């Protein structure tokens, strides 16, 4: 800028900003033929084009386990940033107010399982419903139901299967207060065995783990 707009010489411009002239003239290694990571950079760019919602950890796992490259995860992270491949996320609006529901800390597996519904439609305009559930401690997906309609009875049936697979229910199910979750059938099913933690109406940020999972599910599927 000093050279272009102020008509300064290179020597004077470098002196003004405190930069050695040799450093100013030196190209970054990534822009030189001597870049030993050129092939890896191209692999990462190709992966990012095919999987635009994946981060560097999943790219590293692809290199390590699918391609058989024993590359360091920190190196993949550095190159991922240098190539500008980070996933861009829209900034979250700040929310005012505090939840009136006591906070349950998921400090171990099977303490809090978060449950939520999503709505979408197929190309013919018919609605579909997706029920998902994750363990807030391990972030593992435990339940995914996709159907035109999901009743409380169907949800209870699927929950029973999940409880059987994982050796029993968690301590708490965290969910919003939608009609699927305030049904008497679900309350009766959870009574005496599973605590239910409802988040306040209109506050999905109080159920952040499942909302984050829903975002990734929508992006990738």
Automatic annotation (TrEMBL):
Q: Which Gene3D superfamilies match?
A: Ribonuclease H-like superfamily/Ribonuclease H (3.30.420.10)
- PROSITE patterns recorded for this chain? INTEGRASE (PS50994)
Q: What does this protein do?
A: Involved in the transposition of the insertion sequence.
Q: Which SUPFAM superfamilies match?
A: Ribonuclease H-like
**Domain Integrase catalytic span(s) in chain numbering:** 105-221
Q: Name one GO biological process term.
A: DNA integration
InterPro entries for this protein: HTH-like_dom, Integrase_cat-core, RNaseH-like_sf, RNaseH_sf
What protein does this entry describe?
Putative transposase
Enumerate the GO terms in the molecular function aspect: nucleic acid binding
Q: Which residue spans traverse the membrane?
A: none
């Amino acid at each position: 800028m000093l050279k272009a707009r102020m008509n300064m010489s290179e020597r004077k411009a470098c002196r003004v900003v405190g930069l050695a002239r040799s450093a100013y003239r030196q190209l970054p290694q990534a822009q030189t033929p001597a870049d030993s990571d050129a092939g890896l950079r191209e692999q990462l760019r190709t992966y990012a084009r095919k999987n635009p919602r994946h981060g560097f950890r999943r790219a590293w796992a692809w290199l390590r386990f699918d391609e058989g490259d024993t590359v360091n995860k920190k190196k993949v992270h550095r190159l991922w940033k240098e190539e500008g491949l980070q996933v861009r996320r829209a900034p979250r609006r700040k929310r005012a107010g505090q939840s009136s529901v006591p906070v349950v800390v998921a400090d171990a597996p099977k303490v809090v399982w978060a449950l939520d519904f999503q709505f979408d439609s197929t190309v013919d305009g018919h609605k579909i419903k997706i029920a998902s559930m994750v363990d807030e401690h391990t972030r593992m997906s435990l339940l995914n139901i996709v159907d035109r309609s999901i009743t409380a009875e169907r949800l209870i049936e699927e929950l029973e299967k999940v409880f059987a697979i994982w050796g029993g229910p968690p301590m708490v199910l965290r969910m919003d207060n939608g009609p699927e979750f305030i049904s008497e059938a679900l309350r009766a099913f959870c009574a005496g065995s599973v605590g239910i933690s409802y988040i306040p109406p209109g506050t999905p940020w109080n159920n952040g783990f499942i909302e984050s999972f829903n975002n990734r599910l929508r992006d990738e599927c």
